[in-house]
Amino acid sequence: MADKKLKVTLVHSTIGCVPKHRKIVEGIGLRKLNRTVELPDNASTRSIIRQVGYLLKVEE
């Protein structure tokens, strides 16, 4: 069974957003605009995406 992955891309700048949200975005590995990381599809990743979803584009 293959593990599902999510492609997460930073599409909006973190300038002016809540400092906690900025740290969350940096913590998942997104430092510049239009950069993409692959994250495992699990409950903790989904909760992170729910908090800062206004900055991200998510593909399954």
UniProtKB/TrEMBL annotation:
Residues 6-55 form the Large ribosomal subunit protein uL30-like ferredoxin-like fold domain. InterPro entries: Ribo_uL30_ferredoxin-like_sf, Ribosomal_uL30_bac-type, Ribosomal_uL30_ferredoxin-like. CDD domains: Ribosomal_L30 (cd01658). One of its GO terms (biological process) is translation. It comes from the Bacteria. The keyword Manganese does not apply. This is Large ribosomal subunit protein uL30. It comes from Eubacterium cellulosolvens (strain ATCC 43171 / JCM 9499 / 6) (Cillobacterium cellulosolvens).
